[in-house]
TrEMBL record:
GO terms for molecular function: dioxygenase activity. Belongs to the bacterial ring-hydroxylating dioxygenase beta subunit family. This is Aromatic-ring-hydroxylating dioxygenase subunit beta. InterPro entries: NTF2-like_dom_sf, Rng_hydr_dOase-bsu. The lineage of its organism: Bacteria, Bacillati, Actinomycetota, Actinomycetes, Pseudonocardiales. The keyword Metal-binding does not apply. SUPFAM superfamilies: NTF2-like. Pfam families: Ring_hydroxyl_B. Keywords: Dioxygenase, Oxidoreductase. The keyword Oxidoreductase applies.
Length: 164
């Protein structure tokens, strides 16, 4: 990555470690620690269609700024998230990690994912592609934009109450 103030490069191995750590936090319901991975201007987007490119022009399943992400985390950890009583058990598999060229001042990291969810005896599976836009922060990286493109987004999803 090149930039005016930070010239660090994110290797694929470092990107994998970052994504694996994120998955571990989500699956372990360590959502306050997961929230710390985001910048103050972060966006979390789950498009309603796999090929959508602009959340301002199309319907989204989730389109949250940093404040809404924090509200989501609060509901799942403290508040009344009735649809998550009891909470879902999830396991994420992250694979095919690719570090691309920078967009603006962020490194673009793409990966494939599969999420398995079990709640109240019902099993569901989700798969797709993540796109993380990471920016340097201290001695690590933070998420400026996180997009989860579900390949099954046009199938009945019922209630998407856990974090994709």
């Amino acid at each position: 990555m090149t930039g005016a103030t930070d010239t660090r490069v994110l290797t694929r191995g470092e990107a994998e470690d970052f994504l694996y750590h994120e998955a571990e936090l989500l699956d372990g319901l360590q959502l306050d620690r997961w929230l710390e991975l985001f910048t103050d201007d972060a966006v979390y987007w789950v498009p309603a269609r796999y090929d959508e490119a602009d959340p301002q022009r199309h319907v989204s399943l989730i389109y949250d700024d940093r404040g809404r992400i924090a509200e989501r985390v609060w509901r799942l950890t403290v508040g009344p998230a009735h649809a998550q009583i009891p909470p879902s058990a999830t396991r994420r598999l992250v694979t095919n990690v690719r570090v691309g060229p920078p967009v603006e001042d962020a490194v673009v990291v793409r990966s494939n994912f599969a999420i398995f969810e079990v709640r109240k005896g019902t099993q569901r599976a989700f798969a797709g592609e993540y796109e993380h836009r990471l920016v340097p922060h201290g001695d690590g990286w933070r998420i400026r934009r996180r997009t989860a493109r579900l390949v099954n987004c046009e199938a009945p999803i019922f209630n998407l109450t856990f974090l994709v």
